[in-house]
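User: Sorry, what's this?
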Amino acid sequence: MADSTNKTTVKKLLTLADIKVNGKRAQDIIITDERFYDRALSHGSLGIGESYMDGWWSANKLDRFFENAFQADLRDKVSKNWRLAAYVVRGSLINFQMGKRAYKNAQKHYDIGNDLYEPMLGKTMAYTCGYWDRGAKTLDKAQEDKFELVCQKLGLKKGMKVLDPGCGWGGLSRYMAQKYGCEVTCFTPAKEQIAYIKQHSKGLKVKPILSTWQDYKGKTKFDRIASIGMMEHVGPKNYEKYLRRMAEILTDDGIMVLHTIGGNKSIRRIDPWIDKYIFPGGVLPSVKQLASAFEGIFILEDWHNLSTNYDKTLLAWYENFKESYPKLNHDKYDTRFYRMWEFYLLTCAALFRTRQTQLWQIVISKKGVTGGYKSVR
């Protein structure tokens, strides 16, 4: 049984967000194990996420539940115990994104299995935000429109040498090579991704490398760099180092597009549940952190906020995952995994919907674009 005081406290907090226990509206929560109340208050987001994975609670529509919760700032109202405070302090002392940790972090998430990702992500295999603002009706079209948007912002021309760091499954690399005739070098520390790129890039000028940005030793100068979904894995201690490394291998008249999820506040560690189960070592940069890291290295040419596009993308991924799940290996992807993945996708959708989290495409250059940069939308 739950402590009566904790139960009362949680219910009062939920009332602030117009959420009822065992109600029938989309945002209402269903409690199936009363230990949830104690766990939520004592362990914060980690307890809330783990208790969902354990089946202690559910919601009629999980994204709507979190939409209400985030709008009412319930995250800031739920007490955090000393263990979570220690977790945050530890993040300011240890560099979680360097050395062997960088490989382990990436492989824990991106090497789960292509059998999971292929039906979820669609034919582009793009695992970053799609671009729906050009009228796309499907996930595949939204991702192709995102690829095209990035290419237009880079001003690609045939024969250009392009670097795609943190390239995922290589969808953008193949697009740049196939449509624009570019020579693309791409790297990722995830073995499954490298194998996929090699298999699907035959006949194209795409060179995949198993590496992190720290270990990449290439000295080729690139005309363009498309850093898509990479900065979230670099870490606050390394933002400036990463940008200096990119500047070293970018031509003086080159352009770089930095596509990254961003936070509204400067932090050192990401949410504890996300860090433990989804993106270990991941951190969302803030405007302040990025601007500080650019200083003296790059000139800011354009800053585009695409945040509302991510809500639609995450919902599309969730529908694909839900539809494909019956065909997956349930020994590998059991019920607890299903609830973990559902929690991840729908919680993140609510974060972008309520603008708690942002998505930016930033165009930067080393010496300024001659005549001025022409923004693309």
